[in-house]
Amino acid sequence: PFFFLMIRRPPRSTLFPYTTLFRSMRMKKALVATLTAAMVFSLTACGSSGESAGGSSSGSKDASSSSSKSDDLISIGFAQVGHESDWRTASTESCRSTFSKENGYNLSFVDCDNKSADQLEAVRNFVEQEVDYIIIDPIVETGWDTVLKEAKDAGIPVLVIDRNIKVDESLYTAWVGSDFTAEGESAGAWLKAYLEAKKKTDKVNIVTIAGTNGSSAQIGRTKGFNKYVKANGWNLLDEQDGDFTQDGGQKIMESYLKSYKDIDVVVCQNDNEAFGAIDALKAAGKTYGKDGDIIIISFDATNAGLKNVKEGSINADFECNPLAAPYLEDIIKKIKDGGKPDNQKVYVDEACFACDDTVSSFKTDEGKEITMTVVDDKVLKERAY
Ligand code: AHR
């Protein structure tokens, strides 16, 4: 029991800066290794079976990782949002391949299935397991203060990817992700330019299929796009949560089609919702996209999304880049070498795509110059995910 207590409850560390932190973590690992060996010996001698320090004591029902904490591997706990979209699959794959055993990492991955309570629990378990780093893609922005204070007290650097987190900046080491408000603004400014080019000056009726309520992707895209709704006097008929899934997109679109006779634009806050919306429009006999009556706007620009853009089903697609993991690895290497990230916040690069050249470039009201890339086979080939 004494050994067990020592492993599970080490003295709390408030170790920053990172050089001190890592010296201490190495000592902590040496202590854990010695005590684990002693415990294994003692348990074997008694004929009992036990769990290794990084084993199923994680409490994360779908955590997948090697169960042993190896001294020469950097241990990382990643609390992923879920598996709701193609974008999410690409993000997971990027983290798995970057933080692989071959690259020197022991990744403990938890798919939180879009449940905020599960995600908080996963992070708390990582703190208990004393992983070297915690990566979080926050399902929602709020509710993080307590668990991040626990991580800080344990001396574990927290890296946030993709979505934002609303906490004091001292509670996380770095954030790498997208400017969701800028994505929404680009979509709004593109629509304004497109309607002008098409000489559509009468009333514009818009429905939005939003992403998971409270996620920064939903909050930012809504805020950015709705600025243009207001500024241009467009008529936003409805805005409901499709949870970033194909099924959600289809159901919401079906209900919009029952409620509204005259829809000019469907804004889908990710590609999977757009696929669902397209299925619903097709089933209702509506025309959409390049040569149709209804303009479809989407976000993510995954390979499957861009295929739809090339075919002309989606008019414009605004990229959300899921490949944050390599940026995180750079940060981890810097910290490991005793340094710290150059910037606490890093925005990933993102582009904008269209099915034709009706609008090839435009300026947003915020003064940003945007070029639309028309999707062809070459673009599709280059888009791996
Ligand atoms: O947070 C990024 C968003 O979440 C992506 O747009 C979406 O596909 C994902 O589910």
How would you describe this protein?
- The chain has helices at 2-8, 18-46, 86-98, 116-129, 145-153, 180-197, 216-232, 246-259, 271-283, 303-311, 325-336, 377-382, and strands at residues 74-80, 105-111, 133-136, 158-162, 174-177, 205-210, 235-241, 265-268, 295-300, 316-319, 345-347, 352-354, 361-363, 369-374.
- The chain has 385 residues and is α/β, with parallel strands linked by helices.
- Helix 1 packs antiparallel against helix 2 and helix 6 (180-197) runs parallel beside helix 7.
- The N and C termini lie far apart (49 Å).
- Alpha-L-arabinofuranose is lined by residues 84-85, 87-88, 162-163, 217, 244, 270, 299-300, 320.
Helical percentage:
40-55%
Ligand catalogue: alpha-L-arabinofuranose
Rg measurement, Å: 24 Å
Shape: elongated
Numbering strands along the chain, what is their spatial order in the largest sheet? 7-6-8-9-10-12-14-13
User: DSSP strand (E) fraction?
Assistant: 15-25%
Mean pLDDT: 86
Catalogue the unreliable spans: 1-68
Count of discrete alpha- or pi-helical segments spanning 4 or more residues: 12
Q: In angstroms, what separates the terminal alpha carbons?
A: 49 Å
**Annotation, overall tally of beta strands:** 14
Largest sheet: 8 strands, mixed
Q: Order of SSEs, N→C?
A: HHEHEHEHEEHEHEHEHEHEHEEEEH
